[in-house]
Amino acid sequence: MTPEEDTEKDTEKDTLRHEAKRHRDRIDPFSEDPDAVCDLFFDKINPEKEQVVALYWPKGREFDPGSILERLLKEDWICVLPVVRKETKALGFVRWSDGQPLKTGPFGIEEPLVDEQTEWLAPDIIIVPMLAFDRKGHRLGYGGGYYDATLTALQEQKEVLAVGVAYAQQAVLFNLPVEAHDVKLDWLITPQGATCFKKVTQV
Question: Are 61 and 132 in contact (CB under 8 A)?
Fold first, then answer.
């Protein structure tokens, strides 16, 4: 892809982000049942107890995965939240339990406090936020590239499952523009259902 094509895609994505955010912010959070996403997550993803699950703290009208986090913690799964690190776009992940303090990090997102006792863990399952998604499993993020960089770095070390969660109304009917660094979702879960995009390896 030429630099001109890269610039064209960036401009297209910026326009789509603006429209997708405006659309998402108009979605009534009570128009869809977020608890259905929790049930689908456990039914379809079926995480194992030894797996580390990464979630995120929602900002604004972002889809809230709190029901998944609440159940994971209640049933003693290992949960982590992302922390933006200055030296890299790849996010770090800190083990978190209910009641532990949070601070407002870059971009106004709540993240765990970090000190010398912080327990950093590499997740096996990452629940990913988004502005929009298409039928091929591509997501439209916020433009920082943090989750793409994070998934790329982690997938070089081990198998990691990327699970997008969103309102069904965040779907687009066209294919989103995709660049070389964009990482496709393995699963997409909305209150309306779950879709798997992960290729099954033939034995």
Answer: no
Q: Which residues of the chain have pLDDT under 70?
A: 1-10, 200-203
pTM over 0.85: yes
What Å distances lie between residue 181 and 96, 98, 143, CA to CA?
A: 29, 34, 12
Coil, strand or helix: which one is 57?
coil
Cβ-contact 86, 80 below 8 angstroms: no
Question: pLDDT tens, 84-110?
Answer: 998 899 999 999 998 899 999 988 899
**Cα angle 187-192-193, degrees, rounded to a multiple of 5:** 35
Longest CA–CA span in the chain (Å) reads: 50
- pLDDT (tens digit, 9 = 90+) per residue, 165-182? 999 999 999 999 988 889
Burial class (CB in 10 A: 0-12, 13-18, 19+), 116: exposed
* Rounded-to-integer distance, Cα 195 and Cα 199, Å: 12
8-state DSSP, 86: T
Question: 3-133+142-193: what fold?
Answer: Rossmann fold (3.40.50)
Query: Can you spell out the DSSP letters for 121-165?
Result: ---SEEEE--SEE-TTS-EE--SS-HHHHHHHHHHTTS--EEEEE
